[in-house]
Write a structure and sequence with these properties.
Length: about 190
């Protein structure tokens, strides 16, 4: 990973994370030291920083980020940075960091609930559902036991939910939100 010019907003577990941080108020040449800490649900990681001119370069080695237990869908966390010198300490940064799962260790179906359920409903309607798809439950009933008219209504519902899941995943990965602008044209 290239060294960023600011702390990251998202990073992948199992990768080396590195970024530069500098402040005219706390130059490394004046004896200031810089350190970082990542905290989140079930994760805590100390990140060291070394002097680089009057700024600092923070680095989290791949072995340390790979050890984070974040789950298959990623994990939001908080990155905190501070400087210290001769008994003084000041927090200089606090921001969100979304940790993406390590692609080398991910297993299983990573699609969201709505996307998996929509695929199962469509397969049932087409008559090509696998055993696993037929056993998916909606409420207390298996998909295989739901009448066709109800499946059609559920298909519309889960299509909307799957669209919302996709939009949320796009936002989490830094892609812009898909916006639809409706326009009506007519004579005045």
């Amino acid at each position: 990973m290239a060294t960023l010019d600011a702390p990251p907003l998202r990073a992948t577990a199992g990768d080396t994370w590195a970024w530069r941080w500098a402040s005219a108020d706390y130059p490394a040449s004046a004896g200031w030291a810089n350190a970082w800490r990542l905290v989140g649900t079930g994760v805590a990681l100390s990140i060291s920083a070394t002097a680089d001119g009057d700024g600092f370069v923070a680095t989290a080695p791949a072995a340390n980020t790979a050890a984070l237990s974040i789950g298959a869908r990623g994990l939001p966390a908080t990155l905190i940075g501070w400087v210290s010198r001769a008994g003084e300490r000041f927090q200089v940064y606090s921001g969100g960091l979304f940790i993406l799962p390590d692609p080398a260790t991910i297993t299983g179906d990573l699609r969201g609930h709505a996307t998996r359920t929509l695929a199962a409903i469509e397969a049932m309607l087409e008559g090509s559902a696998s055993k696993d798809q037929r056993s998916i439950k909606i409420g207390d009933r298996e998909i295989a036991r739901i009448p066709i008219p109800e499946l059609l209504a559920l298909k519309d519902y889960y299509a909307g939910e799957a669209r919302r899941e996709a939009e949320a995943a796009a936002l989490a990965s830094g892609r812009p939100r898909r916006r639809i602008v409706l326009t009506r044209m007519g004579r005045a």
